[in-house]
Design goal:
alpha/beta, inorganic pyrophosphatase (n-terminal core), Diaminopimelate Epimerase, Chain A, domain 1, six-stranded mixed sheet, 17 helices, 38% helix, globular
């Protein structure tokens, strides 16, 4: 069971934010926001897309393609970033005058990841003149070569870290290329594609393309850009906060596309109250489920739909797939937790690998990333979960999630450098990465990955840290402050939602849905009684009479009314000294690689 300690965020004085509530001022200051311009993301402050390397050459190619009405095929990816990026590319290019735009998305089993020779061969009958990758391509040496051998031009738009060499594409746009002059390396794949469209529109404007017609309003794509950015868990630096805030503003104003509106309806969310967490935890999983279990084209078609009725049909289909994903994920996570429980039972907690690698031959390879994410949360250490790519094949696909301070993609690169050939493929980010290898090499890889993790991660980094924005005073427990905090974001990766801590007396409690706790709380500072909800906190034992809790101030909307409640993330008995995670590891059989 993960233990955690509280570290309260330091908040410098924010003299420029005096008009804000003192708590909100403190929250902003702790995240480096010290003046009103930073606090209110404005679309006019977006970074200039022209600063992206390769964008001029990409605009040359696209301008030629529009002039000749060439056949353009967008090659996306099977996650939400790739799906939204594909939809943005198709919608944007059509708005800018392209009449022959189509898309393709690889199948996990048949094509593998990204622009591969297999998907190029499948696209050949369409006779594309130009391929544009979205959220992939920076490592597609063979795929780019295959496309060019068939006479296709290739524009790579990606945001993943490049390898030692680049593919021989006609243009490459990636803010993470060495020496790139763009001021934000945090763009998601959909953000890179949106920047290309902005630059292309500016180029066409210079050429007088809109002299006789209305200029396309690319702001109509911002709901998609916001969704992909939040769902891909890229850091919400100032530029990404501008993109997400603008997209949320459109959604709340009722100007979302039919697909996103339908997905919010399927998730029982009110568009007028939409925040980033709704994108990340309601819509994103529904889109991702299609790529994990079935066909991402279902998700892309939902995002491309203009007819509300058709969008609702697709959204309901995505919801059904997502329900199947949740059931499968729960089974896989339970087995993974059981494996960890067996490890600890045999070797003690100190015998647990610093970098665990888990494998089950019957796991679904499209869900292993979610298993790794759940185990990472439980154990607070990097985790890689693996499954067979095909039941009749000996190739294993793995997906990893990491903790702050341990760059997962770099760790895989170190393993690859020490033992060339051990990994067949790998790539990703600091916090998430994917890989493939032969089944027979799993034990060797697990040992090497654990060795790298042990060398790079100090012991004290294996304890989770809860960063609190401090205590609230009695007068702070109001619906108005909760409302201000809710809409003061967007909150997300690298710009975390406000979290507070304090002591409470537990005056009553009940179990909800067999695993959650509802608590009647009286703050120690004399504030009026409050309701608290702790999801996944019921472990069969009554809560302590007095607790120290980390919580979010939340508005609970029900039947058109709002009431204040505390969303409790962790709690402990007063004086116990550490916070327990809510979901302990199980004890049934499982298998792991050490």
């Amino acid at each position: 069971m993960t233990l955690a300690r509280i570290v309260r965020r330091a908040a410098p004085e924010a003299d420029g934010l005096q008009e804000l509530h003192p708590v909100l001022r403190r929250v902003y200051a702790a995240r480096g926001v010290l003046d009103p311009m930073q606090a209110r993301p404005r679309l006019g402050d977006l970074l200039d897309p022209q600063a992206l390397g390769g964008i001029d050459r990409a605009c040359d190619l696209l301008e030629d393609a529009l002039r000749s009405q060439a056949c353009i095929v967008v090659v996306g990816d099977f996650d939400c970033d790739g799906a939204t990026g594909t939809a943005v590319a198709v919608r944007g290019l059509r708005a800018l005058g392209a009449r022959h735009v189509d898309y393709a998305v690889p199948d996990r089993r048949r094509h593998g990841y990204g622009l591969s020779p297999a998907i190029v061969a499948e696209l050949a009958p369409r006779r594309p003149d130009l391929l544009i990758t979205v959220d992939n391509g920076i490592a597609a040496h063979a795929g780019v070569a295959a496309a060019k051998a068939r006479g296709m031009r290739v524009i790579v738009t990606d945001h993943h870290l490049p390898g030692a060499s680049l593919p021989d594409a006609d243009a490459i746009i990636d803010p993470n290329l060495p020496g790139d002059g763009f001021a934000s390396q945090a763009l998601a794949g959909v953000g890179v594609m949106f920047c290309l469209l902005l630059a292309l529109r500016a180029r066409l404007r210079e050429r007088g393309a809109f002299a006789a017609c209305a200029e396309p309003d690319l702001r109509e794509l911002l709901d998609l850009v916001a969704l992909g950015t939040v769902a891909d868990l890229v850091p919400l630096d100032r530029n990404n906060r501008i993109l997400v805030a603008a997209g949320l503003q459109r959604i709340r104003a009722g100007r979302a596309g039919a697909g996103i509106a339908a997905l919010l309806q399927a998730g029982k969310r009110d568009p007028a109250r939409c925040v980033a967490t709704d994108l990340g935890f309601v819509i994103g999983p529904r889109i991702n489920a299609a790529g994990r279990l079935q066909d991402m084209r279902i998700g892309i078609e939902c995002l491309l739909a203009d007819d509300p009725g058709h969008a609702r049909e697709l959204a309901e289909q995505l919801s059904a797939i997502n329900a199947q994903r949740r059931e499968l994920q729960d089974e896989m996570v339970e087995r993974a937790q059981a494996t960890v429980g067996e490890w600890i039972a045999r070797h003690g907690h100190d015998g647990l690998p610093v970098g665990p690698v888990l494998f089950e031959p019957d796991w679904h390879h499209g869900v292993v990333g979610l298993v790794a994410s759940k185990l990472k949360e439980h154990l607070h250490r990097p985790v890689i979960a693996c499954a067979l790519s095909d039941p009749d094949d000996d190739e294993v696909k793995g997906s990893g999630r990491s903790i702050a301070g341990f760059h997962l993609r770099d760790a895989l690169a170190e393993v690859d450098a020490r033992h060339p050939g051990l990994l067949l493929r790998f790539g990703g980010h600091a916090m998430a990465a994917g890989l493939s290898l032969r089944r027979a090499d799993l034990p060797a890889f697990a040992a090497q990955f654990d060795a790298v993790a042990r060398a790079r991660i100090p012991a004290d980094a294996l304890q989770a840290v809860l960063h609190s924005d401090g205590e609230l005073q009695a007068e702070d427990f109001t619906c108005e402050l909760a409302r201000q905090l809710r809409y003061a974001g967007p909150w997300g990766q690298g710009f975390p939602e406000p979290l507070f801590d304090g002591e409470f007396a537990v005056e009553g409690w009940k179990v909800m849905a067999e695993k959650h706790l509802r608590l009647d709380l009286r703050p120690a500072n004399g504030a009026h009684p409050l309701r608290g909800v702790a999801f996944g906190a019921w472990d069969g034992n009554p809560p302590p009479a007095r607790i120290h809790a980390c919580y979010q101030l939340e508005l609970d909307a029900w039947n058109g009314e709002e009431r204040l409640q505390l969303l409790i993330r962790r709690f402990e008995a007063v004086g116990s000294g550490s916070f327990n995670a809510f979901s302990p590891c199980g004890s049934s059989a499982g298998r792991a690689i050490r």
